[in-house]
Design goal:
Layout: H1 9-14, E1 15-20, E2 24-29, E3 36-41, H2 54-75, E4 79-83, E5 94-99, H3 121-134
Antiparallel strand pairs: 1-2, 2-3, 3-5, 4-5
């Protein structure tokens, strides 16, 4: 059985559910400028990666790798950025961002860069379907 957690309202507002892996909720950041996944470990009260028990840290690293590879396969991006910031949203969440030399923030960081451009419903559904397929994940 998959453990339920409370997601920070800002994570919910800024992203769309993709699915679940063994440890993490997978979400798509709702910004067309950067294909961007957010992984949220289903553990209450965790704010730092090192706060996870050892087995969960190992699982998180594996899921980060799986999602990064899937995002690269789907987007054919030049580079994948992985970040764990938590300065605004304290709930542990891991950013996996597909980057290209022609993206809106290249070569700088995506955080705080410009104004978000949300996905249209069809565009979002298509990208989520391709990510789920690359992860061999059901909805």
């Amino acid at each position: 059985m998959t453990k339920e957690i409370s997601l920070d309202p800002r994570l919910v507002a800024d992203s769309v559910a993709v699915g679940r892996l063994a440890l993490c909720e997978v979400r798509l950041q709702n910004d067309t400028r950067f294909p961007w996944l957010v992984l949220v470990p289903r553990r209450e009260g965790i704010t730092e990666l090192f706060d996870l028990p050892e087995a969960d840290r190992a699982a998180a690293m594996e899921e980060i790798s799986q999602c990064a590879a899937a995002l690269r396969a789907v987007t054919q991006c030049l580079k994948i950025n992985v970040g764990v910031l938590g300065n605004i949203v304290r709930q542990l969440h891991i950013h996996i961002v597909a980057r290209n030399e022609n993206d809106a923030a290249w070569p700088g960081p995506v955080w705080g860069s410009g104004t978000r451009i949300p996905y249209g419903e069809t565009q979002c559904a298509d990208l989520i379907a391709r990510i789920r397929s690359a992860l061999a994940m059901r909805g």
